[in-house]
Amino acid sequence: MPSEHRPVRRNHLAALGAATVVGAAVAGAVAGAAVGAGNTDPEDTAAAVASAAATTATSPASAAGSVAPAILEESPQPVSVDPLLIRSVARQVLLEQEQPEHLTNVDLIARDVLSQSPADPAEAERMTREAMLGSGPGAPVASSPEAEPAIAPPQCPPTARACIDVDGKQAWMVDGGRITYGPVPITTGRPGHETVRGSHHVLRHVRHDHSIPFDSPMPFSTYFTVSGIAFHEGRLDEPSHGCIHLGHHAAAHFFEHLKVGDEVVAF
């Protein structure tokens, strides 16, 4: 091999050695520049490469470019308290109770819960469940000293917590066969939408409900049949579509004191 090519090869070997320190791009550029300038001395080329390595190592820009960017862990975003969250909880409650969703207006539940300004998602879930399962808010009912509780009608068994006289248009709350509230006036189902008689159990509560089939408000709804029959505030001068209409204070009292699972008897 001609001797004139040997210095050039040694230049390249020196550059490749330097690549392990400063990277192939820097070393190759320095070696190429040296050869292009006619420098065939391997020691000069190695010195140039070493100088470039020192400069590169101390250069902030190069250091920044040669170090992989740090991966910043994003902190989880907090769950916001909004109608979407409350509607989701309400649907979960209906699913747990095996109740059809179309009988409950979850938008109104969301409106009612948000009006109480829950501080966080946990409190919003608690308020939503209370509104639907009982233990929810009810308007205060004036209390006064009472005499010995009266005996409930014989059609009202001692296991019942509320009884409805469909024909007599009145209702009571009872405990162990004794009346604890009432009787209060009611209206019941009109022809074609008769109130279902028999023994039922409270299923859920909805503070601000709205009848979807009949486009009518149903404040203080206390549901006790899967077909959507409930105690709720309503007009007492006209029949219902099967529900039990109560006055405002009576509806609030039934809503507040009847819990999920309580027996309701209509006779």
TrEMBL record:
<keyword id="KW-0808">Transferase</keyword>
<keyword id="KW-0573">Peptidoglycan synthesis</keyword>
<dbReference type="Pfam" id="PF03734">
    <property type="entry name" value="YkuD"/>
</dbReference>
<keyword id="KW-0961">Cell wall biogenesis/degradation</keyword>
<dbReference type="GO" id="GO:0016746">
    <property type="term" value="F:acyltransferase activity"/>
</dbReference>
<dbReference type="InterPro" id="IPR050979">
    <property type="entry name" value="LD-transpeptidase"/>
</dbReference>
<feature type="compositionally biased region" description="Low complexity">
    <location>
        <begin position="138"/>
        <end position="150"/>
    </location>
</feature>
<protein>
    <submittedName>
        <fullName>L,D-transpeptidase</fullName>
        <ecNumber>2.3.2.-</ecNumber>
    </submittedName>
</protein>
<comment type="pathway">
    <text>Cell wall biogenesis; peptidoglycan biosynthesis.</text>
</comment>
<feature type="domain" description="L,D-TPase catalytic">
    <location>
        <begin position="160"/>
        <end position="267"/>
    </location>
</feature>
<dbReference type="InterPro" id="IPR038063">
    <property type="entry name" value="Transpep_catalytic_dom"/>
</dbReference>
<feature type="active site" description="Proton donor/acceptor">
    <location>
        <position position="232"/>
    </location>
</feature>
<feature type="region of interest" description="Disordered">
    <location>
        <begin position="133"/>
        <end position="152"/>
    </location>
</feature>
<keyword id="KW-0732">Signal</keyword>
<dbReference type="InterPro" id="IPR005490">
    <property type="entry name" value="LD_TPept_cat_dom"/>
</dbReference>
<keyword id="KW-0133">Cell shape</keyword>
<feature type="signal peptide">
    <location>
        <begin position="1"/>
        <end position="27"/>
    </location>
</feature>
<keyword id="KW-0012">Acyltransferase</keyword>
<feature type="active site" description="Nucleophile">
    <location>
        <position position="243"/>
    </location>
</feature>
